[in-house]
Amino acid sequence: MDVHLELRRPFQGLHSKRMRMTSGFRWLLATLPLLCLMSQVNGQKRGAPRELKCVTASFQVWDCSWKGHGTLYEVCIEDRSHSCYHLEKANIKIPALPPGDHVITITSLHEFGSSRSKFILSERNVSLIPETPEILNLSADFSTSTLSIKWNDKGSAIPHHSNVIWEIKVLRKKSMELVKLATHSTTLSGRDTFHHWNWTSDMPLECVSHYVRLRSYIDDPHFSGHKEWSDWSPLKNISEIADSPTKVFPQDRVVLVGSDITFCCVSKEKVLSAQIGQTVCPLIHLDGENVAIKIQNISASANSGTNVVFTTEDNIFGTVIFAGYPPDVPQKLNCETHDLREIICSWNPGRPTSLVGPRNTSYTLLESFSGKYVRFKRVEASTNESYQLFFQMLPSQEVYNFTLIAHNPLGWAETTLSVNITERVYPHTPTSFKVKDVNSTAVTLSWRLPGNFAKISLLCQIRINKPNSVQELRNVTIKGVESSSYLVLVDKLNPYTIYTFWIRCSTETFWKWSKWSSEKQHLTTEAIPSKGPDTWREWSSDGRNLIIYWKPLPISEANGKILSYNVSCSSEEGTQSLSEIPDPQHRAEMQLDGHGYIISVVARNSVGSSPPSRIASMEIPHDDLQVEQAVGMGRRILLTWRLDPKMTCDYVIKWCNTSRSEPCLMDWKKVPSTSNATVIESDQFRPGVRYNFFLYGCKNQGYQLLRSIIGYVEELAPTVAPNFTVEETSADSILVKWDDIPVEELRGFLRGYLFYFEKGERDASKMRGLESGRSDIKVKNITDLSQKTLRIADLQGKTSYHLVLRAYTDGGMGPEKSMYVVTKENSVGLIIAILIPVAVAVAVGVVTSILCYRKREWIKETFYPDIPNPENCKALQFQKSVCEGSSALKTLEMNPCTPNNVEVLETRSTIPKIEDTEIISPVAERAAERSDADPENHVVVSYCPPIIEEEIPNPAAEEAGGPAQVIYIDVQSMYQPQAKPEEGPDLDPVPAAGYKPQMRLPVNCAVSATAVEDDLGKTAGYRPQADVNTWNLVSPDSPRSTDSTSELEPEPLVIEPKHPPCSAFQKRAAADTVRRIHARRIPQQLFSVPL
Predict the structure, then answer these.
(1) Which CATH number among 3.30.70.3550, 3.30.70.100, 3.40.50.150, 2.60.40.10 corresponds to the domain 724-762+776-828?
(2) Name one GO cellular component term (predicted).
(3) How far is it, in rounded angstroms, from Cα 298 to Cα 321?
(4) How far is CA 844 from CA 697, 838, 857, in A?
(5) CA-CA distance, 533 to 553, in Å (whole number)?
(6) Is residue 937 exposed (0-12), middle (13-18) or buried (19+ Cβ within 10 Å)?
(7) What is the pLDDT of residues 451-490, one digit of tens each?
(8) Exposed, middle or buried by CB within 10 Å (0-12, 13-18, 19+), for 70?
(9) Is 0.85 surpassed by the pTM of this model?
C-alpha cells in the first residue's frame, strides 16, 4: 500500500511543475529495487509445489504427485525422523503412512531459487483407485451365442480381504452400440485369482462384431479415503464370420416356447425380405448388408420345426427353429417285479415337449447302491403313455434306490424312488389251471405261476361260484417254490353241483393281486339224498281215496339225480306199499278206509335213498270259519296267527289260485309249531290274482283247518266297469241297478263304486275330468258293497242326463261305463206353466176394467170431449141490423190484416192449390225479420187463421168461363198454438175436424169488401168480420211444413192486396159459403156466443 500511495501522490500536486519533476525521479529510483524484489518473489511462488494428490492401488504404497516448475524436489516427511527424498520429477511413491495427519514438506529448486510448501497428509486424503484390469481371454460359443471372458484380479497385491465390484460393458457393431452393462462381484483373497463371466447374446455372434471391456471398484470398509473406479481395460472383440458357407444364424436352434429369438443373415447382397413360417418380419440392419429379425413369444413348432427364410434378389437363405418345452418331472414312478428276477420301472412323462428326433427327451434309470444304470430307448413319436425300463435284479439285494433322469436340449428333470423289491411283487397270471375230484364234497386245484418265489410265501385267492348262489372267496397261504407249480385242496362243497373256479395270487406282504386265471367249471360227484321230499295229502271229494303230493328235492338236498320215489302207508294193522314212481311224477293216490294212516315218501338216486318223509292222513273236524282278507307286497304275503299249544307237529299253509276257471294250482309250506308267522313267497304269484290260503295245525297225528284267508300279493285296478241298467225313470228321479264284477276281472278287494251324473246330450262331448271337482258333476260314493241299486232324485223333467259308474279297489280306479237317460215330462209343471200366464192376464183385465169404470168420466173428457152442434147455435142467426147496429157484439170480429206480401216456397202445380194458408200479420212479419239468423229454417208466424181451399164444381161458374175456389178459414187455429213444421196437415181439408167457414172466391178476381159484406149480410148465418182481400196467403208447402214430399223446385208466389170488382156469380158463391157453415160442428170452447 505504501508503494501504491507513493506512486499516486505526483498526480495530486498541480501548483508547481518543477516540484513534480523532482519528486518523480526520486520515486522512480526508489521503486526499482522494490520491483526487482517483487519479481523474484513471484517467480518463487510460481515454482512452489502445490495441489498434492495421493492415490493407492494396493493399500501399501501411496503414489503422490503435485504441480510445480522445479528441476529438483526435496520431499521430507516429518514423522519419519525427517527422512527426505530428492527427486527430479513431481511424483513420489511412499509407503503407506500410519493413521493420523502427517506434515510433508516439498522444496522445489528452480531458476529463481527455491520454494517450499507444506502439506498435511492423511489416509482420508488418499484415493483408492485399483489398477486397470486386463482381459486375459475372450472366447465365443457360436452354437449358443455365448461370450466368455477371463481376467486376473491380482489379489496378491492387496494385503487383506476386500470386496471387488467388476463392471463389464459389451458393445456391438462398429458404432459401439452398448448392448449390455453388467456387474460382477468377487472377493480378494490375498492371491491372484482368475475370474470368468459368460453372457449369452440375443443376436447370433456370427452376424456382428462384439466388444468387451471391464473396470473394477474395491469396496474396503477399513479404508477411510476416497474410493474410485479403475480405468477401463483395453477392448477385446469377436468379429463376425464373413466368409462362412452358412448364411443364416443360428442354425437348427432349439428354444423354449414363449421365448424371444433373433435370426440374422450374413450376406454381401441386399436382403429384400425375411419371414418365419408364413409371417413376414421387419428387417434390422447391421453392419454392411447383414440384417436380422427378432421373433417374440415364439409358439411350439411342428415335429419338423419352423422354417426361417431370408430372400435376396438372387438367392434364398434359411434355417429351421425348434420350439418346445423342457422335460417334466417324471410322474408316478413305480418299480415292481413279476417274478423276482427282473424289475420293471414305469412312469408317466407328463407334458409333451414338442421335440422329436435327436432333440427328444432321453431317460436314464440309475441305481445308486450298485451304480448301475439303464437308458430308455423309445419310438420317435411323442405320446402320453407310460414308459417302462427293465432292470435286472442283483443277487442278494432286496432294497434298490432308483433315480430317473429326464433330459433334452432345453433342460433336465429327475425323480427318485427307494423300494424293497420283495414287497413289490405283482405276479403273472396263473396258467395251466386244473380241477380234480377228491370226493363228493372236495376237489384239488393246480396251476403254474412263473417266477422264483422260494424265499417268500404266496397268498392266493380262490373264487367259487355255483348256480343260484352268492359268489364265495377263499384265501389260502402257500409256500413259494422255485419250480412254479402249486396245488391246493378245496373242500366243503355240495355233491352233484356245478362249480366254477378262478384263482389269483400275490405275496404274503401283499402289493397287487395278479389277474384272475381263466375259469374252470367242474361237477362234483353224487351222494345219498340228505332229506326226504316235502309231502302233503288231500282226501278226494268222496272221502275214499287219499291223494299224496310231494315236491321235488332241490339239488342241494337231492345230492344227485333223483331216479324214483317209494310211497307207503302204515297203520296198526300193517304196511301197504306202492310200486316205485318215476321221478317226473310227484303225485300218488291210495284207496284207504277211514282209519288213521302214516304216509311215507322216500326219494332215491344212483347212490342211495333219502330218509323217509312222514305225514298223517287223519283230518280233524273244525268249526265254521270266517273268511279273512290279506294283501301282500311284491311277490310275497305275510300271514300271522296265534300260537296254539295243542299243535304238537307243525303248521301247514296251503294255497291255490281261485281266480281262474282251470283247476286250482296247489302249493304248500310247512312251518314249525313254535312259529306264529310266515312269509309266503312263490314265483307263481301274480299281481291282481286272488289266492285262497288255508292254515292247518297238526295235533294228535292229524291236521285241523284253523283259518281260511283270501288275498292278493298286490291289488290292481279293475279291468272292467260294472254292468248297470236303468230300472225306472220318472220326471224327477232315475233308478239304476248294476251287477257284480267277476273275481278274475276285479283284481283286488272291491272297496266301493263311484257314480257320476250330469246334464248332457248324447252327441255332446264325453264327460271329462270326473275327478277334477267340477261343480256341474254330481258324485256319489257307494261303500256298501251289498247295495246294487241307486235312486237319483231331485232331477229335472224331460232332461237328458249322462250317467257314469266305476268300481275301485285299493289298487286303483276301474274303467267307466256310461249311458244317457232322459227323464219323463213333468205334467204338473206344464199345467202350472199354462195356468199362471192365464191367471195373470185375467187379473190384469179385471183390474184394468175396474180402473176404467171408475175413471170413465175422466177418460171421456180426455179422449172423447163433447162437441156442440152448430145447428143449435143461435150465434149464426143474428140479424143484420143487430150485427151492424150494435158495436158491443164483437165476438167474432176480426181486425183487418194488412200484409205486405205472401211468400210461397213450394208449389205443387201450375195452378196452386192452397191448403191451410195462413194470413201473415205485419207484426209477425217484423218479428220474422228480426230472426233471420237461420234463413234455411224459415218459419212464418201467422196471426190470422189459415184459409183452406176446396174446388167446388159449379155448372154456372163453368158456364161463366172459369173454375171457382172455396177457401176454408180454420177458426180453431186462430186460438190454438202454431203447429210444428213436421206436424203440418197434409190431409184433404174437407173432412178435417173443426170449424172452417167457407168463402167461395173466384180465381180470376177478388171480391170487393163492400160487395161481399152486402151479400153476406143477406144471409142468416155467420160471416167473418174481415176483408179477405187484404189477407196475405202462405202456401201450406212453406218451410213450416217439413212433411212435404214434393220434388218440384219451390216457386215464390206473391199476391198483392187487391180490390177487384165481383160478379153476380161470386156473390152467389159467397152465399153458398155461409150456408155450408151451418153443416159443420164448431167447438164449443172456441166461441163465446150469447144464446
Answers:
(1) 2.60.40.10
(2) receptor complex
(3) 10
(4) 91, 10, 21
(5) 6
(6) exposed
(7) 889 889 999 999 999 988 899 999 999 998 888 899 999 9
(8) buried
(9) no
